[in-house]
Structure formats: structure tokens, C-alpha cells
Amino acid sequence: MFNSTIIGNDYENGLKVYEEYKKFKPLLKEIEKLGYIPAPDENVIQYIIDDMEESHRTPLSELFVMLKSVQNLDYSQFETKELDRLFALLQLVQNNNKQITKIEILDNKDKLPHLNLENIQEIKSKDQLLFAMKNASREYWANLILTQIQDKMKEIENDYVTFKGTSCNHIENGECKIYKVILQFKDDMLNYKKNPQLIDDIYKVSSLLQAEKPNNNFEMEFVNTGKSSYTRSLLLNQLQTREQIETAVKKFLVEE
Fold first, then answer.
1. Domain of life, per the record (predicted)?
2. Could you give the count of Cα atoms lying within 13 Å of 9 in the half-sphere of its Cβ?
3. Which residue, among 123, 94, 117, 106, has the nearest Cα to 24 in the 3D structure?
4. Each residue of 156-208: pLDDT tens digit?
5. Which of 32, 84, 92, 169 could disulfide-link 178, Cβ–Cβ 3.0 to 4.6 Å?
């Protein structure tokens, strides 16, 4: 897919990228066999523009490809099935055009990039690609930690507190360095004066995370619903012991 609308002074760049698209277009059938298609309403191949003003003064040289996964990305097979088909895509793109240095993959369920791979011409092996994928996908890490703790977190739930999910806040060197765990309290029960079990509930979660993932950093997000809606966030290292939790609860988890 290629949209022909060219805005402002980009006519020359538009012509150039259209020529690149014509060279790339024959690959689309092979790419579709791998489970990727052009993203709707987006040019499948575009120039990388970091500075709009600079782009009018100097020739653009690096390109990126934007595709959409036909099926939802399967994070349970991230290191096998997803790796294999992305490596096959990478080889097609590398062999087609050395100017393409970036690939963005949109998941089937939304229009946000779920994989944003840069410097792809430098990736020569599956191990290198997997490292790049892990650096690029917070969703992978969120799914990984979720599968490890979900069942035990569900055991901690009760009539007023619910485990709502996980996310990865920061990735570095192919590892998620900070996870977020989200707990939702209904009926304004995120209030130690109203909820005498609040300290014990948080202690159970803190103990579970320390036992299951002792070498990871966690942010705990508490969401209150009811007459008042608000959110509080604390780091797990502030909640290591019951005494620390009691101090934090009485200081931060008070009624709005």
C-alpha cells in the first residue's frame, strides 16, 4: 500500500520513496505468507525523519517498513514461532533494500507498534534478533511475568481487592528492570481507616513478589474505586516488611 498524498515541500522525497515502494512491492505476497500485511492508512515504506526542518536541507537516506500482524502476536511463542517468522521477514527486507534500517510491527488488535526494531541491517542471527525483540517489546515482559504470578495473585483476591494485571515499565539490555503490578480496591477500601485488612493484603502481595521474583524491581499501583477514584503508586523496596507497609499505608493510602 502506498498513499500518494505529499505535503508541503516533500514532493521530491515523495517521489523517491515511491520508487523504493515499487521495488519493495513484489515482496508483499511473500510477507503475507509470514502473517504480515501493510498497515491500514499507512505507507508500507517511508523515510525515517527525526527532524522535519533538517529533512528539507539534507537528503533522506534511511527507510522504515510498517506492517501489521494478521493474527495477534503470540507472546507465549515469542521465542519460537514469532522469532522464526520475524527472522524470515527480516531476511526478505535485508535482501531487498539495504536502506531499510527499521521495522515497525503493529499488533492485530490495535494500531500501536508492538515491535519497533531499529538498526535491522546489523542483525545477522536469530539470537541477535531475539535480543532486539526483547528490548523492543514491553508486552512480552508483561505477559511473561503475568504467566508466572497470575494464579497466585488470584489466590490473594477477596471481596474488595482484585488483581488487574502487570506491565513492564523499563527495559534495559534485553531484560525488564521494573515491573508494575496493579491492584484495584472497590468501595473505597484503599483506606486503612476503613479497611483493617489493607496492611495484611499488601503484605501478602509484597511477600509473594519477593518470593517469586526476588531479583526484580516492582512498582505497585493501587487503584481505588467507589465514591472516590484515585491511584497511588509505591515501589516494592518501600514495602519489604510489614512495618514498612504499615508506615507507607498510614502515610500515603489515606482517603482523598
1. Bacteria
2. 8
3. 94
4. 999 999 999 999 999 999 999 999 999 999 999 999 889 999 999 999 999 99
5. 169
